[in-house]
Amino acid sequence: MRIGVISDTHGLLRPEALLALSGCERIIHAGDIGKPAVLDALRELAPLEAIRGNVDTGDWAVAIPDRLDLQLGGLHIHVLHDLKELDRDPRAAGIDVVIAGHSHQPRIEEVDGVLYLNPGSAGRRRFKLPISLALLDIVDGQPRPQLVTLG
To answer: pLDDT tens-digit profile of 41-64?
Structure first.
């Protein structure tokens, strides 16, 4: 199973992001969507799960949750926008993967058997950080993440 993970689009969905996400069986947007049109375009590629980030205000964002717990490919995946707001011990909660955006800094890290994945920002460039997203392959119940630099 291949899951596309994107975050911090801030209303900008780049053509190269759409290309990188094509063929994914599922897409997760980890917040700071910016405009509902971003979600509409992602839904055309694959089933979409999305959470609300700190810039997602207005009537269009009210129904979007601020966190998600998903079971995909045999893994428990917890999605929130800002990792600093993680309010539980992932390992004790049986979480296999924590996905968070917000910092715009792409990161793959494993801590105590839990994978932490930040796809970075796929929207407008911030400082000198790369523009990126992530692909999460689940193979035999194991997460295999990779970062994809755009542009």
So the answer is: 999 999 999 999 999 999 999 999
- Indicate whether 126 pLDDT > 80: no
CB atoms within 10 A of CB 12: 15
Three-point CA angle 138, 140, 143, nearest 5°? 30
CA torsion sign, 145 to 133 to 18 to 44?
Answer: positive
d(CA 13, CA 27): 14
Contact 11, 34 (CB under 8 A): yes
The count of other CB atoms within 10 Å of the CB of residue 150 is 17
Domains in the chain, please, with CATH?
A: 2-149 (3.60.21.10)
Strands lying side by side in the sheet with 48-50: 48-50, 26-29, 2-6, 132-139, 142-149
Query: What's the pLDDT score for residue 130?
Result: 93
Average pLDDT over residues 104-117: 96
